[in-house]
Amino acid sequence: MSGETLTSEKITPDMMIPNLLSRHPQARPVFNRYGLNGCGGQLGPVESIGFFARTHGVDEQRLLAELTEAMRQPVGAADDSKPSVADAIYRRFFTAGIVLVLTAGATWGAWLLWQIGIRGAFTSISIFQVNAHGHAQIFGWVGLFIMGFAYQAFPRMWHTPLAAPRLAAAAFLAMLTGLVVQVTAMTLVGQWSYATPVAVIGNVLQIAAILAFAGQLAVTYARSDKPFEPYVAFAFAAVGWFVIMSVFTLWHTYQTMAAGTREQLLWYVATYQAPLRDLQVHGLALFMILGVCLRMLPALFDLPAVPQRRAWTSLALLTIAVLSEVVLFIVYRWTQQHAWAGLMWLSWVLLVAGVALIAWPWRLWRPMPSTEAQFDRSAKFIRAAYGWLAVSLFMLLMLPVYQVISGIPFSHAYYGAIRHAITVGFISLMIMGFAAKVVPTLNGIDTRTLSPLWGPFILVNLGCFLRVSTQTLTDWHPAFFAVIGLSGTLEVIGLGWWGVGLIRVMVRGKREAAATHEQTGPRPASIEPTHRVADVLNWFPATEPVFLEFGFSAIKHAVFRRTMARQVTLAQACRMHNIDAEAFVAALNRAASAGETCGTRTDRSEFVQLNVGVGA
């Protein structure tokens, strides 16, 4: 590239972001305007410019034009964006969600399953323990991941900073404290006189956190100039269900814990527990996942975009379905008229139709369209999740048929199997798949260098299959109780395997970001042999051609810059390559000085002349 200036280098959609930013750090503010803040460290995520444009909703040609214009700025042009607590807010939510699912969530649920299996009855354990476990799963596992993802992703999709980012940290503290307090108090019913009021206090803290979360998202979106697309409507509908079901949970928790007799307790559980789960599962979780998928699956996996009219129709059908199944069940319990229960089947038909309108165009039973997407470690989780959603909805439609065949008016086993197929099979696999895709990207780690996660994928799917099948079969023979506990254990091992790996990725990204900040420090007046390779490249990007001319071709790779280049000094690098350190450092200082003066790349012929007699 003899005589080329920084502005003459042509950038393409296929160019990797770390490679561009390593040579042109002045382009970083352009990416930050469209949501790169806090993503991937100093050099950004390991993804192409075109992929960034698709996932962040930026016109590709507009982005390329703005990047080209930014490259005309002096090399020393600084990024004036300030670090924010919102840049990595997801880490605390995701970490807490993993800890909760591996303690009070899935692990406790597996222990309860073993007790059910040993005693041979689903009613053999305390309803308060079941509800405490369920609360940890919905508000801890699902709720925390939804909040963490929304705080991180939605402002970037809308190209605007999160409103009141410190409030997000406060919301996290309130949510986590409330969860721990409520779940603990729910398990102490009958043993502690203050259990009920303490549980209520915990629930109030969670409601406050959820209201703060909802308000922040609303204000953040209002500040953007983005149109009100279907995926936004799905997301805000999910947040609305989140608020409603949290208030409903407060009322239901108080009524069950304060029930004076066993008959009162059973009435509240039989009448309101199923509608509450519908709001949590079909309302909050299903709406949020479908909204995110509408926006992200076409960008991530080259799937066809769902037409807006089709998506709006789906939203209307699903809203009617959730409202009607909740209201009809409560009316049925109040009146004891089975006609109301029969109408619920129509609600489930609407539910299936709404999901099909969105998911059918993706043809997820077929391989992903592109070869890269087929081998993406997240793709199998997404496809399997929608398979389990189909199983759950099919079983729901077949509930009247099962009642006739089994002769059981209401089968706790069959209904629980339906719930498990959607909560673990669909919701948990979607969380695992999206997190496995998004978290490494946010931490600047190439997913191709990580485990494909086949172990967790197989274990969770196998556990879910055993749970759904054997739980249903307990209606037909008690022998199946003997193996039901194994399903939960397999799921916990799979979730633990995946969760530990995800936490390690987040810790690694945080450590590398801190190391970069610590090592780089303020830019010196001149380059010395004791300076590290990565620091020199960060301080003086115009020195990159010198490194290449002297034979350091590895600096072209972002992975090298994040690893070896941070540890090796210029003097050590010269010794390893048998290069005259004095001549090399002199060439670096000339290039740095030339870049400071005119913002251009020094002529290649100059470096060739400097290399004469050096032994490069």
Overview of the molecule:
The chain is mainly alpha-helical. Among the domains are: 1-82, SP0561-like; 523-616, Orthogonal Bundle (SP0561-like). 71% of the residues lie in helices and 0% in strands. It has 25 helices and no strands. The protein has helices at 17-23, 28-33, 49-56, 60-70, 90-119, 127-157, 165-186, 195-223, 230-257, 262-301, 308-335, 338-359, 371-374, 379-397, 399-406, 412-442, 454-473, 481-520, 533-539, 544-549, 558-562, 564-567, 570-577, 581-598, 604-610. Helix 6 (127-157) packs antiparallel against helix 7, helix 14 (379-397) runs antiparallel to helix 16 and helix 16 runs antiparallel to helix 17. The longest helix is centred in the middle third of the chain and has 40 residues, at 262-301. The protein is elongated and about 90 Å long. The model is unreliable at 1-7 and 598-616 (pLDDT under 50).
